[in-house]
Amino acid sequence: MNPSVRQLEAFVTVYREGSLTKAAEKLYLTQSTVSVLIRQLEVSAGVRLFDRTTRSLAPTRVAREMIEPAERVLRDLDACGDLLRAFADRSRGTIDFAVTPSFGAAVMPVVLAIFAARYPRIEVRMRDVALHEIRANVLDGEVEFGIAAPEQGAGLEVQTILTYAPVLVCRKDSPVARRKQLAWRDVIEYPTIIVPPMRAWIEQTLADVGKAYKPAWEVSLFATALAMTKQNLGLAILPSYLAEHYAAEELATIELVAPSTTRDLVLLKRREATLSTAADALVEIVRSHVRTTASEESH
């Protein structure tokens, strides 16, 4: 037999109060309801828990042996309830997620600082890894979500986090720095520095306007491209959301137009998986932060 929570509560309260009347008052129930709950428990268990007379209510030996386990069960249930409420109101929890190294370095420090201030008891574990690792981590359930370039595949759900464009970054003392915009066909007139994830995008965009493309430098990291730009080795072509965070005071950002071209950065999660309330809160801060940054850039 499996006693109900109400039956256990009635038993423990009657045992501690020594009276049906006092137990009923404490439980905000009628005396007859408490009596029925005790009787149901006794009948289903096939044992007597209290010896009753017209003037007294005494626990039996079975009741004395049962009281501690019953109270422990109720404490555990209370603890479970507290834990569920903590998860729901985001006062406790753990988040595991993955991002690309560039996004992790450029955007997430500010986001994590905001999140930590709002939800100090939630543990956050971020993995900054390559795209193929993000996809594998999400599908394996090692992380709740990832933030990366769009990745299609069975079992994955994709939600857009931000839309960005490529921009040109140069030194402020460069002649091109005076321009607000630069047409793609004019890019080939300058030595450029790129990273591998941008190459195919740049080549295709220039091919669309009838131009072949060859960079002056190709390096592995966005930060390296910017460091080389500072040394006047060329102009870096970066995603707009990274340029805003990485570009230093001595660098200028120029919009690339004719044509305008954009791509998405997305949230990847397992299809039909529900994010925890803590993860939802973190994702919302990411969205809010990138929206704010984009708004500031437009002004």
Contiguous helical run count: 12
Estimate what percentage of residues fall within beta strands.
Answer: 15-25%
Number of strands: 13
H/E series, N to C?
HHHEEHEHHEHEEEEHEHEHEHEEH
Overall structural class, as computed from helix and strand content, comes to alpha/beta
What is the rounded Rg? 32 Å
Distance between the termini: 69 Å
Principal-axes geometry comes out as: rod-shaped
The helix content is 40-55%
> Which regions have little confidence, pLDDT < 50, spanning 5+ residues?
none
Mind summarizing the main beta sheet?
Answer: 6 strands, mixed
Mean pLDDT: 88
* Order of adjacent strands in the largest pleated sheet: 8-12-7-11-9-10
Task: Give an overview in words.
By secondary structure, this protein is an alpha/beta fold. It is 49% helix and 22% strand. The protein contains 12 helices and 13 strands. The protein has helices at residues 5-17, 20-27, 31-45, 61-88, 101-106, 108-118, 131-140, 184-187, 196-208, 222-230, 240-246, 277-298, and strands spanning 50-52, 57-59, 93-99, 122-128, 145-148, 156-164, 166-171, 181-183, 192-194, 217-218, 235-239, 251-257, 263-270. The protein has a 6-stranded mixed β-sheet, with helices on both faces. Strands 4-3-5-13-6 form a 5-stranded mixed β-sheet, with helices on both faces. Helix 9 (196-208) links the parallel strand 9 and strand 10. The longest helix is centred in the first third of the chain and has 28 residues, at 61-88. It is rod-shaped. The chain starts with a helix and ends with a helix. The model has no long low-confidence stretch (mean pLDDT 88).
